[in-house]
Structures are given as structure tokens and as C-alpha cells.
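mind reviewing this fold:
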Amino acid sequence: MVDKADLLTAIAGKNRGLLATERDRQAILAIAAQLADRNPTPQPLAAPEKLGGNWELVYTSSKSLLGLDQLPFLKLGAVYQCIRPQQFQVYNIAELYGIPGLESIVSVVARFTPLSELRIQVEFERSISGLKSLLGYQSPDALIDSLQTGQKFVGLDFPIKPSNRQAWLETTYLDHDLRISSGNEGNLFILTKP
């Protein structure tokens, strides 16, 4: 029987999935499925104190997210998914680093609607991208505070087209510091919270 330590060992050294081989991905997926069978929070939406907060991505199989590492002169840094259950909002924030002065972020703001005890429908509303210095980016919480006031940012700040707006996300494992989710494109997301 596997436990959290087995999962964390399996993803160690994989650089959020960038260095994972197909064999690694299959092993990680199998461990995540076994943990989901013993989910200590079978109704994550009914546990906002656990679900809410700033989660840091430690592993994903999402090619679009990992593809941010391929941008010229930039590498993928910390990635956060910040959930605000009381407002039914999700903020995805990817930090990019590289040549000094070009440090950037890519962020997406979304609303969610519960579909079941595990699954939410996500509707992407807004995308913000740009240099950290021009955006005044200091931390996920500071960015979210600015977004909640309706602030417009220098850089790319635009609404997301309705045709690209919807997805779903299912939380298959949740405890006080580990969350495992899967998305509508078959992607696995493993996140931790300090």
C-alpha cells in the first residue's frame, strides 16, 4: 500500500514533470490513483478550510503548462493555484525567470461551479502576462488582492474568449498539505501547501 511519502519520492527530481520520462509518468499516475482510493477528504468542496489557500504545483503532466519552460530566455519557476472557495474563484500563477530584468508571470483568473463532491466546472475569465517589474508582482497574495479590486495591468491583460473558457477539475485526494487533481484533458496535478 502506498502513502504520501511514496508519491513525493516518485516526483522528487522531476522538476514539476519537466524531467519525467513516460515510465515515471505512469508510475506517478498509479501512485496517485492508489492514494485517491484512500482520500481522507471525500468531499473536498465541503472542506473549504483544507481546499482553500495557495497551493504550489510540485508535479504535472500538463504539456501546455510545462510548455511555458520553452519560452525564449525564460524558464518555468514556481507555479501556484490559489483557491478562494468562499468567492468560487481560482487564480493560476506561473512565475518565469531567466535573464535578469525579464522575470515574468503568466496568470489566469477563473470562477468555478461545483458539479459534484469532487468536480468543479472552471470558467476562465481573464489572462494576465508580463514582466514582474511592470506588473508590480511581489507574491501570489499581492497579485490576487490587486485582481480582486479590478486593477488593470501593464502588459497583456485581456478577457478569455468564450470558446476557450471552460474546463473541469476533479480533486481526487486532499489533506492539510497535499492535493491531487485531474483535469478534463487527462492531466494530473500534484500540489502542496506549506
The chain has one domain: 4-192. The first strand starts at residue 53 and ends at 60.
